[in-house]
Amino acid sequence: MQKGILKIRQTRKGREYLVEYVNARGKTIQTAIMPQNRHFDQATAVDNDPLEFELLNGVPVKCVVPGKETAPVARAAPAGRQNLEAAQGYRSAPANAQGRALVDAVAPYNFVPFDAAAVLPAFEDEEGIWSGTITCSLKALTPLLVCARPEKGSETAPGICRFMQANGGNIIPGTSIKGMFRALLEILSFSNMEQVSARHLFWRTVDRPAYREFFSGEEILGGYLRKSGAEYTLVPVRVTPREAGAPRVKGCERVETGGLFKNGKKSRDYDFHEPPADVKGQPLPAEIVNTFWAQLTPNQESPRRWAKARREERLKTAPGLPVFYRVDERGEVAELGFCRYFRLKYKYSAHELAYPDGVRVPCDFVTRLFGSAGNGLDGSAFRGRVTVEAARIQGAPYRENGLEAVLGGPKPTCLPLYLEQDASRVKTIAKGRKNNLEYMKNYNDRDARLRGRKLYWHHDVDESFFPGRETMNKRDGTKNNKVITRLFPLDTGAEARIVIHVERLTATELGGLFEAIQLPAGHAHKLGMGKSLGLGSVRLEIVDAAVFDARKLHGSLVERLGQAPASLSVEKIAELRKGFRNRILAAVRERCRKWRDIGEYDELPPIRALRILMDYQNRPKPAQVRTMTLRHIQGDPLTQVNFGNHAILPAPEEVIRNGSAQGS
Fold first, then answer.
1. Listed range (275-289, 290-304, 473-487) with the worst mean pLDDT
2. Per residue in 235-259, is it b (16+ CB within 10 Å) or e — as a string?
3. Which of 219, 341, 534, 566 has the fewest CB atoms nearer than 10 Å to its CB?
């Protein structure tokens, strides 16, 4: 426990409680005490009472006035990252909460649940005997675009995305089709979730108490970052806030951070006082500097701000590169940023939340089938046994002048969409249609879980629901070409012939591949770009399966000199698919206790969600799965559901249940 003095101030909103103490560097600090950390009787406590407290990430917690101890009046969000982890669950509902949480977010995608405990290792008890060629037909059910390298836009013209071409014709690369099969088989075979990032995400929500606590205290911490060889040091200096446009002060460097606006104009800059010439600075660990570079925004790295060349020059030139920083409970530098309230690193990455025990199956079904770049059983790379030829596709253009759209969407930091949330614990904020982010799971919570694998809904192309409508035009009415991309897809009905080569697959692997190719009646695959706009719904049918048992073909001279083996019958393909489903079901039931009583493969929760998302015949209407707007557009009732509401995304079955699906 540390010792300090209780300070009480009277404000327009009532009493404000602060702790005054001397930190490890000998500076006197005053920091606000959040309500959940006031373990003293506020009615009898007086100004200058002695105070005992603990520090977590620079935030005072468990503040006690000796002789006046009591429990906090109400628990709110735990302070600091370590405290968030210690809470092991949701924060308590806020005092101003009303009604139920909003669970009506809409998105052109949804999630197939993923449970690391159900991931199956590769089956090693079969001999690979099946080789040959599978030929399929592909037909576009909605416009289709498999794009080559996009052409960058400019102030006068939008970016361009055209179909990939070779020898004067449109083609679909074999890698695109193979990637589609691999992603689908990851779900069907309960394999590892490969496309999940191990990089840590960053966050900044200035109006949230949980964020402000990291920057509590009256002192603005800033200094100059310097580099000598591979070593970094920081020289702390005094930082003084100034009104934007205020006269320059001699002996200070004016640092313009941007970002906060008042009446349409920037309201504040900062003066960094010149450091003493003989100060060497304190060494910084490489991890802190690497985190600093990783959290920079595109605007901060732009040529007019701190492009890499300019940063490198300032790092090696006195006084150095001006940065803001925050300290931890020990008074040591914890994080750096280019602005007063910079982005903070979340404690856990998406990969760590997907695999909470840190254990991945080293070689699963998909890895053994499609190959590895270095994550096999012994860490070595090996090639797969499935290859796909590039396919020439025939079809008319959807529209001669293309489609204009704003590409992009929410990132994994959109907590109500990407993380599992318990709606019974999240409440709406009083006097507004909005959930309170303070009481949602985030990447600082060790028990937070990802929603799962992201898949796009099938739906028709309806340009009235394209995302970014509110940003396509500038204030003067002209097009904002910086954000617009013009797409040139092929029209519905475009066709291609897909050729897949397989080499020495086991019966289970071949059955799994057929299961990924031949979907249930009325279902369809998603291929190419523009999936959120309704593009890319395609239907595959097996035309020929010239796959043979290698043991029989090479068993005798008569077989080798004879005719090519007959193609697999429809009945044999159905038998292989059934064998795959039964084997996966038995293995999952044995490995995952909570699904032990499930008797059908299609009743496993991930497979059930997958079937709903891939059902083209019962696809949702475009309005049900549009991209939400950033804000409400005047006169447009649909945009009342927007990102500002922080509404939770319903599960796939809820989306279909809540809206009437349209038939094919």
1. 473-487
2. bbbebeebeeeeeeeeebeebebeb
3. 566
